[in-house]
């Protein structure tokens, strides 16, 4: 049997001061609980972040959107005032039971390459607000993920909130797709998010991120460059789409594992990108009519 100290602070500062050697933070516990059950970790202290009200909820201001790190995945999936790619990514996580316990902060800090909110946050240019013994700092999503289950968090540091800048919210459309071995309660073999600004039928700006295809969620910069400045008519040509899919397949660095083979991940990445781009371009052109 494992014995440990457990505390449930009400403020971030209280949580920080409770953190000691061999402590862990817990939010929904849906990742941490697996490690504990399998005795892969044996912390001496567990600090539950879920009673910290300042770390919960979704709010909007002129600067953009702020999502507290302890906001439930189910609340993000159900929110209608956040970009589609993020609510769809959240809705793709686990089952209703998992989504009702899991938090966005846990999904981020767990840093699994297949985490379903990570690619949406990458394309939304999200910034993570961190607080530790040394004070507050903010880090871009792209600088936070350092490898499978590895992040830029310093020991004891807490992710307090996720910020999505207003520039990522206004006048843009987004999409998210994933593939898994079945439709529900399944970890992504590949997931992909796209953010785009389409004006007069032309892609003015685009960001693409693929997950479960590299040690960290990847930006597909080469594919973005292929699409940037292109018109819907140019994009919708078969030859262009074939080249786009081929570019996605070589831009990623997947491995084979229990969920999918490397070759499958490559070909499905190309197909997902073509699907999302087709949807967004059609939607972007329709919105302008
Ligand atoms: C059956 C099942 C199905 C699942 N399906 C999916 C899926 O389809 N897609 C997917 O992406 N994930 C899936 N997961 C994984 C998991 O549910 C998510 O990653 C979830 O978002 C984790 O959130 P949590 O609050 O439960 O994190 P926890 O388990 O509480 O914490 C995870 C890690 O993050 C750290 N942490 C948590 N919050 C903070 C914070 N604010 N600051 C600093 N560190 C923090 C913890 O110390 C721990 O190391 C599944 C898990 C299970 C058990």
Could you characterize the architecture of this molecule?
By secondary structure, this protein is of the alpha+beta class. It has 3 domains: 5-48, Uridine Diphospho-n-acetylenolpyruvylglucosamine Reductase, domain 2 (2-Layer Sandwich), CATH 3.30.43; 57-168, Uridine Diphospho-n-acetylenolpyruvylglucosamine Reductase, domain 3, CATH 3.30.465.10; 173-288, Enolase-like, domain 1 (2-Layer Sandwich). The chain is 35% helix and 26% strand. It is built from 12 helices and 14 strands. The strands form 4 sheets. A 5-stranded antiparallel sheet has the order 4-5-10-6-7. A 4-stranded antiparallel sheet has the order 11-12-13-14. Strand 13 and strand 14 (218-219) form a beta hairpin. The termini are far apart. The chain binds flavin-adenine dinucleotide (FAD). The site of flavin-adenine dinucleotide has 30 residues, from strand 2, helix 2, helix 6 and strand 10. Flavin-adenine dinucleotide is lined by residues 24-32, 34, 49, 69, 73, 92-94, 98, 101-103, 105-107, 109-110, 115-116, 158-159, 187.
What's this entry about, in short?
The chain is α+β, with helices and mostly antiparallel strands and 289 residues long.
